[in-house]
Design a protein that fits this description.
heterodimer; A: alpha/beta; Rossmann fold; six-stranded mixed sheet; globular; B: mainly alpha; ABC transporter involved in vitamin B12 uptake, BtuC; 72% helix
Amino acid sequence: MADKTISEARGDDSSPLAISLDNINKTFGSVQANKDVCLSVVPGTIHGIVGENGAGKSTLVSILYGFYSADSGTVAISGEPVRLRSSADAIAAGIGMVHQHFMLVPNFTVLENIILGHEGGSDLKAGGRQAEASLKGITERYGLSVDLQAAVQDLPVGLQQRVEILKALYRGARILILDEPTGVLTPQETEQLFDILRTLKAQGVTILLITHKLKEIMAVTDFVSVMRSGEMVDHLQTAQTNPQQLAQMMVGRPVLLDVGYQAAQAGQAMLNAEHLTVTETSGVTSLSDISFSVHQGEILGIAGVSGNGQSELLEVLAGIRKITSGTVQIGNRKITAEQPASPSEVKRLGLAHVPEDRHAMGLILPFTAAESAVLGYEYADLMGGRSPILSPAVMAAHCKTLMTSYDVRPAEPTLKSNLFSGGNQQKIVLARELSSQPAILLVGQPTRGVDIGAIEFIHKQLLAMRDKGCAVILVSVELDEIMSLSDRVMVMNEGKSMGIVRKADTDIQEIGLMMAGVTAAPPRQQKAK
Amino acid sequence: MNASSLPRWIDIGLLPVLNLMAALTVAGVIIAIIGENPFVAMGVMIKGAFVYDGALGYTLFYTTNFIFTGLAVAVAFHAMLFNIGGEGQAMIGGLGVGLVVLFLDSVLPPLLVVILAVPAAAAFGAVWGVIPGWLQARRGSHIVITTIMFNFIASSIMVWLLAGMLMAPGQMSPETRSFADGINLPLVYEVLQMVGFSVSRSPLNLSFVIALLACFGVWYLIWRTKLGYIIRATGHSERATIYAGHDPAKIIMIAMAISGALAGMMSLNEILGVQQRVILNFTSGYGFTGIAVALMGRNHPIGIVLASLLFGALYQGGAELDFEFQTITREMVLMIQGLIILFSGALAYLFMPAVIRVYSSLRKPTGSG
C-alpha cells in the first residue's frame, strides 16, 4: 500500500522502495503499540519519523531491526519481502542502527569496537588489518575520519556516535536507522551529524531518523511520517509542512509551541552557592568551584550536555549529595561539608525539588497516585503532622485536589503511578512539589519523556511560579527549553561553570560553544578561557 | 504487561490456587506410581488434618508457627529484604523466653512471668534480625548471606548453651530444666472446657490468638501507618526514599527488627505453649517454610493466614498419611510438602504468562499507547 505523498513525489520512478512496511500490527498484552502501520521510504532520502513518547516509534524501529516480530503485516527491504527474526537478519538485509545509548565497549579502541562480532577468524591481528583496509575505503567515501587506534572512552560523544555509524556501514548497511541521535550532542555537534547524514544521503544511503525534535525534522529530512497512538497519522514532504502543523498532528489538537515568556524583575537572592565542589568517593570531581545565586521571581536555567555535573548540582542543592567544599546558603542557613543538610531540612527551608528521574525518585511506580502524591510530605500538616497514622481517605482527597488543579488524566487517585503517561506522571510530581508553596524550586528535566501537550502546561506552571516570586533553578538538556523559560543561563561543562549569561544578551550559538567547553562567558569571565 | 496490570483477585487468588493444584497433581501422579490411589490418600490427608479427633487443634497449632514466620518474611519483604533468618531469629526468641522464665519463675508469680516472656521472645528475635539489618544498611553485607550465617550462629549458640550453662542438672539431653508450674500459655481446649465446651486435647494455645493479632498489626503497620508507607517506599525505590527525606538505612534496620520480633514470637507457641522448657531444634524448619508461606500468601496477612492453614494441614494430615499407608513414608510426605513449596514458592509465577494471555484475550484489547 504505497501512500500518496510518496508516490506523488516519486513520479514514475519505479525502482523498489528502500523500506516498505505494510499493515504492521504489534500488541503487548492489551496495548496495541502498532496498528496497521504502513511506511514507504524512498532510497537515498532522509526520512523522519516523529511522534510523542508511546506513539509507537520505538516499537516500529524494533520490528525493523529484528528485536520484535510483528503480529501481522509484511516488511520489504529494497523490494524483497524479508522476515526479520533477529538483528542478525536485519544486518544481513542491509539495515544498520545507531542506538540512542551507544553500544560501545568504552575501553576498546575504535577498531576493536567496529570489528566486534565480525572479527574475521581467531587471529585478531589479521582480522584487524583486513578491517582497517576496508574501513579506509568507507571513511574516505563518506568523509568520516576518526582515529581507529583511539580508545572509545577518550573520544567526545560526537565522535563516539560517528563510530556507531561506521560500525553500521562496515557491516554493509545501506539503510541507517538513527534513534534520537541528538539527545547527547551540543548544537554544533548536531550540525556536524547532519552534515554527515547529508553526505551519506549523497552517497545513496537511506536514512531513517527517529526524533521528537521538530526543528531537526525540518532541518535535515526529505520526508516525514507522523505517528500517534500506534498509528501513522500522515506522511508528508518536509518542504511542504511546518513545525506547527507537525505538532498538531502529533498531539491531535492545536498546540502552543511558545508559552509566552516575558522578562520580569528579579528580587532578592534566595539561594547562594559559593565555590561548590563535590568529589566522589571514586576520586572523580563531579562539581568544581561553582558559584551562583538565584533570586526571587527568576528562572536560572542550567544548560549543558547531559552528564556534565547538572544532576550532581541538583542533588547537592536538594541535600541528597554531600558537599566536599564550598557553601550553599539558603536564608540564614549556611550548608557546608561540616554542617550538611538533609533533604528534609532543605525542604523545611522552603525548597521543593522536581527530580530529573521521576521513575526512580519522583514517584514510586508501584504505588497508587494517592500514595505517590504524598512522597516526602508524609509528615506535612495536611497529612496529620507527627501522627503516625496515614489516612487513605485524606490521601485520596488530597490527590484528587491536586489532579483536578493540574489536569492529571485520568483523575483517579487509586490508579498505580506506572499506569499514567509520562506527562501525567510529571504533573503529579509537579503538583506535589508546587503545592508546598516553595520559595525555591529545583526542576530537573521537567519535560523529558513528556508529550507536547503536557510540555505546554508544565512550562506555563513554571513561569507562573516565577511570577509568584519563586526562585526557580531549571536544569535541562533541551536547549530550547532553557532558552524559552530562563531569565539567566548558567552553562556547565565537565562539572565547571562556563559562566552565567543573561538570556537577552546571548544566543544559542554562544551557549552551544560554552556547552562544548570552547569558550567561557563574555566579558568578565573572559580570563577563565 | 506484568503482574501489576492483572486484577488483584487473579494475583492473590487464582494464581496460588493454580500453583497448589499443579503441586497436588504432580504429587498425585507420584502416589499413583507407587501404587496407591491418590484420591483416597487425599481423603485421608484432609480427614487427618480437619476431621479426626483433635486433628483441627493440631493443624491450627502448626498454623500458628507458620503465621509468625510467614509474617516475619513478609514484613522484611515489603522493604525488599529477603530475610532467610527466621529460623535463627525464632531460636533466639526461644532463648529469650527461656532466660526470662528460668531467672524469674522462682521469684515472680507465674502470670507475671508469662507476661514478661512474651515481649522477651519478640525482643530477642528483633536483636537477631537487626544485626544483619545493620550489616546490610551500614556495611553493605547482603542480607541473604548474613541471615543464613546468623541461622548457623544461632544454632551453635543454642547447642553451646543447652549442652552447657543452661542444661538441666543431672541430665543427659541438651535442654533446660522444666519451667515452674503454671508458666505456660493457656491451652485452648482447657479454656473451652472451662466455659463448658468439650474439645479433644491438642497443643493449640493462646499463641494462635497472638498470631492473629499480629496479622492485624502487620496489616495496619504496612498499609495504614506512615512507617509502613516508608517501609514500602524503601522496598520499591531506595533513591525515592532518600529524595523524600528518609534514611533508608534506618528503615532497613526497623523493618528487620520487626521481622525478627515476629519470627522470635514463633517460640511462644512451641516453648511457652507446649514444651515448657527450651529444647534443641524446636524450630524444626518452620522459619524456612515461612518463606514459602509468605510467597504463597503474596506477603499479605490474609494470604499468609490461608497459606499457613494449608501448610498446617499438610503437616498434620501428612503425619496421618504416613500412619495410615504402609507405602507412603514420612519422606513421601516431605516430598509432597516440597512440591507445594516448589510450585508456590520457587515457581510462583509459572502460570502467569498463560493467565495473562487468557485474561487479555477475554478482555477486548484497547488500542492505547
